[in-house]
Amino acid sequence: MKLIKSALVALSIIVASNMPSNACSRVVFLGDSTTNYVMVGRTLDWRTPIPTNLYVYPSGIKKQSMPSGPMLTWTSKYGTVLAVGYDGGVTEGMNDQGLVMNGLFCKGTIYKEAIGPDNKTPVMSLAVLVSFFLDNFATVEEADQWLKQNEFAIFGKTFDGGTVSTLHWALTDKSGMTLVMEYQNGQMDIYKSRDMKVLTNDPPMPQMKEINNYWKQIGGVNMLPGTVRSSDRFVRASFFINHVPTNADYTSALASLSSIMGTVSVPYGYEIEGEPNVSSTQWRSISDATGNKYYFKLAYATADFWIDLNKLMLSPGKPILKLDTSKYSELSGCVNSHLKESKGFTPMW
Description:
Elements: H1 2-17, E1 24-30, E2 38-45, E3 52-57, E4 62-64, E5 73-75, E6 80-85, E7 89-95, E8 100-105, E9 123-125, H2 129-136, H3 140-149, E10 153-155, E11 167-172, E12 178-184, E13 187-193, E14 198-199, H4 205-218, H5 230-241, H6 250-263, E15 281-288, E16 293-298, E17 305-308, E18 321-323, E19 333-334, E20 340-341
Parallel strand pairs: 9-10, 17-19
Antiparallel strand pairs: 1-2, 1-14, 2-15, 3-6, 3-18, 4-5, 6-7, 7-8, 8-11, 11-12, 12-13, 15-16, 16-17, 18-20
Helix pairs in contact: 1-4, 4-5, 5-6
């Protein structure tokens, strides 16, 4: 039986390694009980440029999940910092309670859809899905309880010349708990654990864990897979995030996570002929859930910068703020003073 299982795992690794994938990686650093640092690193990788601007939204704003038809409506409870692609869809973000959410490409995803004119299931646009969770929930447990009691269908436009937006998502709160949301054949699967520190792309979480378990037997000190494919990045990130000091001071903890994100980044300008989806890292971020700082680094910029939510007024009635990264790519340090009052982004319904 063990021989059969090992053969199946090995076969899944071979299959996964020969499938083209869309590169994005997410890694959670958890400090020990003396520091309690929780930081979430993420890379955004794609074959063509995805212009990404940063928005800061105060609480108290009325929003909706679709322009018409069955929808969810809400008034935001929390202030948020959001990374918005094409000025039309939220890629990731963090709220002022320390809840972080990131959406990563996951090939093979099939969402739940609202079928038929009489279907009353509320529909959620992919453009605002991340905002919905960050606006409404302070912890993973709150989000999990809502998901258990509610359902919604997904609507998402194509982008980049017709690519379908197939995603999965991960939420992490300042306690270090992580929840992963994946769709398979129209059914949402939810996984929740403090031990789920890594998310990349396909295959789905159960198969990815099997691949990672195979490499654990080999031992990362001896050998780690080195390509930019999704499963290889997952294995590398899993090994390193579990082999860096967790009792480090803040600067060292940030450096550990930042360097791990470098090991799973795709070199700028790198391409694989015939596989355009394995593509350069365009930017990296680190969301400091316990310190309410959002770090951002464009691949071609010379330095990191960050937004400090602790120093911003996010109560109802305060303005929406925006950082146009195309104008401020060479910033470093805290960029709160460079945020400009703005109207909200227009969702790509």
